Amino acid sequence: MTYPREYIVELLCRVDIVEVVKTFVPLRTRGSENQEHFGVCPFHRERTASFVVHRTKQFYHCFGCGAHGKAIKFLEVHSGLSFSKAVMYLAKRYRFYPKQWRAMRRQEARKTK
């Protein structure tokens, strides 16, 4: 399934990347504003916390292996999801569904009646 660019942009605006990453990686905050969260990178073996997630900038970056991206990319790489499945995961989690889903659900509801 293809998604309009506007939908992806709006979805990423609604997503809190810290919540998404915390589901898979333990993170700690540094600083007074709680905007940067640090942890051990899930993409390579390391002992120190070189993995940072920025809440306001909505991206992650590892200073050790160079991995970086937004919430969809994190789910693709970490969980092995396809782009479409990562978008579906976030859409369900944040209850922001694309118009195509609503139309498909209406058609399915009509068929079952």
Spans with pLDDT under 50 lasting ≥5 residues?
A: none
Give the ordered list of helices and strands. Answer: HHEEEEEHHH
Helices and strands: which structural class? alpha+beta
The largest β sheet comes out as:
5 strands, antiparallel
- The gross shape turns out to be elongated
Q: Note the beta-strand portion.
A: 15-25%
Distance between the termini: 26 Å
Chain-averaged pLDDT? 88
- Return Rg in Å: 17 Å
Helix segment count?
5
Tell how many strands the DSSP assignment holds.
5
Folded structure, characterized:
The chain is α+β, with helices and mostly antiparallel strands and 113 residues long. Helix content is 45%, strand content 15%. The protein is built from five helices and five strands. The chain has helices spanning 5-14, 17-22, 71-79, 83-94, 99-112, and strands at residues 28-30, 36-39, 51-54, 59-62, 68-69. A five-stranded antiparallel beta sheet has the order 1-2-3-4-5. Helix 3 (71-79) crosses helix 4. It is elongated, with a radius of gyration of 17 Å. The mean pLDDT is 88.
Key phrases:
alpha+beta; 113 residues; five-stranded antiparallel beta sheet; 45% helix; 5 strands
Brief rundown of the structure:
This protein is α+β, with helices and mostly antiparallel strands. It has helices at residues 5-14, 17-22, 71-79, 83-94, 99-112; strands at residues 28-30, 36-39, 51-54, 59-62, 68-69.
Please write out the topology.
Elements: H1 5-14, H2 17-22, E1 28-30, E2 36-39, E3 51-54, E4 59-62, E5 68-69, H3 71-79, H4 83-94, H5 99-112
Antiparallel strand pairs: 1-2, 2-3, 3-4, 4-5
Helix pairs in contact: 3-4
